[in-house]
Amino acid sequence: MNTKQKKKLIRFIRDLDQYRGRHTELVSIYIPQGYDIIKIIQHVQQEQGTANNIKDKNNRNNVIDSLERIIRHLRLFKQNPPNGLAVFAGNISDKDNKTDIRVFSIEPPEPLQLRTYRCDQTFLLDPLKDMIEEKDVYGLIVLDNREGNVGILKGTMIKEIKKMTSDVPGKTTKGGQCLVFGSLIELSNGKKIKIEDLKIGDKTKSYNFNKKTFEGSEVIDKWEVEKDEVYVINNNLKCSKYHLIFLKDYSMKAAEELNEDDVLLDNNFHEVRVTQINKFNKKIKMIDISVGSKNFFANNFLVHNSQARYARIREIAAKEFHKKIAEVANKEFLQMKNLKGILIGGPGPTKETFINDTALLNNELRKKVIGIKDLSYTGDFGLKELVEKSNDVLSEQSSIKEKELLDKFFTMLAKEPRKVVYGKERTLKALETSAVDILIISDDMDDNLVEEIELRAVDFGTTVEIVSAETELGNQLKELGSIGGILRFEVY
After folding, report:
1. What is the predicted pLDDT for the residue at 314?
2. pLDDT by residue (tens digit) across 191-220?
3. Is 342 exposed, middle or buried (0-12, 13-18, 19+ CB in 10 A)?
C-alpha cells in the first residue's frame, strides 16, 4: 500500500465513520478477493426478501432500498476487482422526516479475505481500519542503572510496555547491605539488642584485623530501606542479597554469592559452615547501619558494611537489573511478527554495557538493533527522546517523512518564499506551468478534488505527497488552504 492509497482509504473510513442509523439500517458488504460478484448479487437479492420481515416500516423500507441500490451498483462491475470490494449503503440523513439513501464502495489497497454481510446502526469498517493500521513496529529500550523502560513505536504512536526500577545503589549512597527487623546486633559489652533499637553512638562488637583483636566500634548512621527479597543463611541471618559476609580467610561474599560449604566466622571467630541458603521474594523493610570499623556481628555472624567492595555490589546489582530488562524485551519482542528493528538508548555508558553483554538480549533480537543513542532521560521522556534522536534510522517512517517535508516547506516559506506556493488558486496555477516539484496536499481536502489534482500532477512529473491535517505542521498547512508546493524554479 503506497502513501496515496493509504490516505485515500483513511479519508473513506473517516467519511463513513461519521454516519449513524436510527435502526439497523446501514448495510455493509465485503466481497473477498476472487469471489464471483454474481453470487453476491444473488445473495443480496435473497436478503431483500428476508428484509420484508423487519417490523419497523421505516427501517424495513430503508434496508430494502439500500439493498436494491447495492444490487444496481454491483451490476456496474463486469467482474470482482483484483483485491475484492467493500460496499456500503444506507440512510445517512440526520433528519427524521427525510431519507437520503447513499451507496459507497471502495476497492481496498490490500486483498480482502473475508465475506461479510451486516445491517447495523453503523457501517462495519474494522476490516478496512485494520489495513491502515501501521504494520511495522520498532522495539524501544531505554535504561540506566536506576530505571529501565521497554516500549514500541508503531507509526507515530509510542507505547510503553513495561517500566522497571532498580535497587542498584548509587555511587555515593549509603548501604544496600541491610538486615531485617529483629536481627540481633552484639554490642561491645556483650549485650545483644535488636537492630531497630540501636542508636547512633552505641558501640558494637567489631574486629580489628590489624591488631587481631575485638574492639568496640561506634554506630555512625542508621536508616531504613525497603527490599524485594531476603536471603536467609543457616535459618539464622536474614539480610539483603548485597550484604557482605566474612569468610574464614577474611575475604567477603555478598549473600547472593554464597554457596553451601562456604565457611563463615561467628562472634568468637569460630568457623561455621554454610549448610542452608533460602531466598524469599517479598517486599520487606530492612535496616542498614554504618559503624566506624566497617564490620560488626549480626545474629553471631561477622558481617561487613564498608565501601571497599561497593563497586562490586553495584556491578552485581546492575547486571541483575539488566537481566530483568532483557527478559521483558525478549518476551515482548520475539513474538512480534512485524518487528522491523530495535532502538536502545539511555544516559551514560549503561546502554553499551547492556548491548555488549551477549548473555542478555536474544541473539535474533541483537541482530535487529539498528540504533544506540545517548539520551538525557529515561522514563516516558526517554522513550520520546529516543524516537526523536533516531530520525536517521527511522527515515522511512511516514510520520517523520511528513515532518521533514513540512519542515522543509515552512523553512523555505520563511527564507525563500518565491520557491514555494500555497493556497488552491496559486498552487494550481503554478502546477499548470510545470513549476511544482513536490505537491503537498492535506488529507482533509475533498476526495474528488484531490483525485483531479493528482491526475494533473502526473502530466507534469510532479510528486504528490498527502499529509495528515492532525499534526501541528499539518494543521498549519490546512490554515494556508490545505495545499502547497515546493517549486522547481521561482514563480513571480
Report:
1. 67
2. 999 999 999 999 999 999 889 999 999 998
3. buried
Looking at residue 172, what is its pLDDT? 42
Entry pTM = 0.44
Residue 271: CB partners within 8 Å, gap ≥ 6?
248, 263, 264, 265
For residues 444 and 278, the model is more confident at 278
CA distances (Å), origin 382, targets 111, 116, 333, 344, 429:
39, 44, 19, 10, 46
The predicted pLDDT at position 480 comes to 93
H/E element holding 89? strand 85-91
Residue 173 pLDDT: 45
Alpha carbon 199 to chain centroid, angstroms: 48
Task: Give the tens place of pLDDT for each residue, 405-418.
Answer: 999 999 999 999 99
Q: Is the dihedral of CA 421, 425, 428, 431 positive or negative?
A: negative
Q: Given a cut of 80, is residue 310 above it in pLDDT?
A: no
Composition of the chain by helix, strand, coil, percent to 5 = 30, 30, 35
* Distance from the Cα of residue 416 to its chain's centroid: 39
What domains can you pick out in the chain, each with its CATH number? Answer: 3-132 (3.30.960.10), 137-167+333-388 (3.30.420.60), 179-304 (2.170.16.10), 398-487 (3.30.1330.30)
Q: Is 349 exposed, middle or buried (0-12, 13-18, 19+ CB in 10 A)?
A: exposed
- 148, β-bridge pairs: 143, 164
Cα separations in angstroms, 184 against 168, 190, 195: 26, 11, 6
Please state, in angstroms and rounded to a whole number, the distance separating the CA atoms of residues 322 and 319: 5
DSSP state letters, 407-468: HHHHHHHHH-GGGEEESHHHHHHHHHTT-EEEEEEETTS-HHHHHHHHHHHHHTT-EEEEE-
The full DSSP string for 190-210 is S-EEEGGG--TT-EEEEEETT
| Cα–Cα distance for residue pair 290/218, rounded to 1 Å | 9
Q: Which three cell numbers stand for residue 216?
A: 568496640
Q: What are the pLDDT digits (tens) for 160-181? A: 999 998 866 554 444 557 899 9
286 by DSSP, 3-state: which?
A: strand
pLDDT at 398 over 70: no
- For 98, residues 6+ apart whose C-beta sits below 8 A from its C-beta are none
In the block, cell 434496508 appears at 63
